[in-house]
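Support request, priority: normal
Reporter: lab tech (M.K.)
Component: structure prediction queue

Hi team, I submitted a job for Tetratricopeptide repeat protein from Filobacillus milosensis yesterday, and the status page still shows it as pending. I've pasted the exact input below so you can check whether something in the sequence is tripping the parser. The sequence length should be 325 residues. Please let me know if I need to resubmit or if it's stuck on your end.
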Amino acid sequence: MQTSESKIIPYRHDGDFYFTYGVKAFKEKRFDRAEKWMLKALDVHPKNALYLSQLSVLYTEIGQYHRANDQLQKVIDLHGEDYADCYYLLANNYAHLGLFYEAKKYAEKYLEHHEDGEFKGEVQELLTMLNQLSADEDAEDDLELDDMDEIIIYQETAFYHLEHEEWDEALEVLEEMMTLYPEYLPAKHEYAYALFRSGDQEEAITLEEAWLDQDFNNLHSRLNLTYFYYTTGKNKEFQELLPSLNNVYPTYEPQKLKLAITLARVGEYEAALNRFKLINRHQVSNYMSYFYWYSKVLDKNNFHETSKKIWKQGIQKHPVLDSFR
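Reply from support: The job had stalled in the queue. We restarted it manually and it finished. Here are the results:
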């Protein structure tokens, strides 16, 4: 006699079934669930290049660049040069990790195997940025490794005062930092910004104009001066400098954020919204300014409900933000 159990036919979903659910969860930013579905898909087809690549994109999105690179390296090991886009993704991830030599190596590999590929423009911009960062890094090599812990403390202290718009306190910390570590270039641009906001506008403009003359490709100077010119009514200078920001796509999230905020400050709300969409929220959630300006930009673009949602998230993470409304 045949039992009912013997009539049960085992059924296992194929990889595409799991992968589809993983992509859906990813688009909904439910990253833990997305990872589970994608790993299930890879259990079925562990060598599938699409599954591996998408999992790497998920890890990049949540800032787990080493894990992302592991997946991309598997694709290259399994499929060789058939998936040259992996070189671009590897380069981008290594840049985020501050491993500029590796980033440059994979960016050049992409152009070698995919000279006219879809990401040609992005790779060329990345290489330009890497060359600039390498130059900056050479200038900072004079800093003793033992000094880095102290620099981080200064950075965090200045960051706190800048985020809370405590300009006098920020200036004091940054002045001391510039005296002790003159090779550390970002401090002087934060100093100029705090100087401007504290009321010494002409001095701030003079400093940044001098630095821009030394290096026109310096993003810090261009961002500061764009905001300075707009605020002080120097319309001719503002109009000349603003277009130079349009083709700049920084790799690091804080730089992406500063660019988006600058565009918002000067009333370029649509362009600012496009830039905010490129920012990985998980990597800038410690910035009150992210929630403040993203909410404002969304509201200016008539996304009122989403604006309220972002503002609420900001208040939950930074209760003091409510006093800045």
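The longest helix spans residues 120-140. Confidence is low (pLDDT under 50) at residues 1-7. Let us know if anything else looks off. Ticket resolved.
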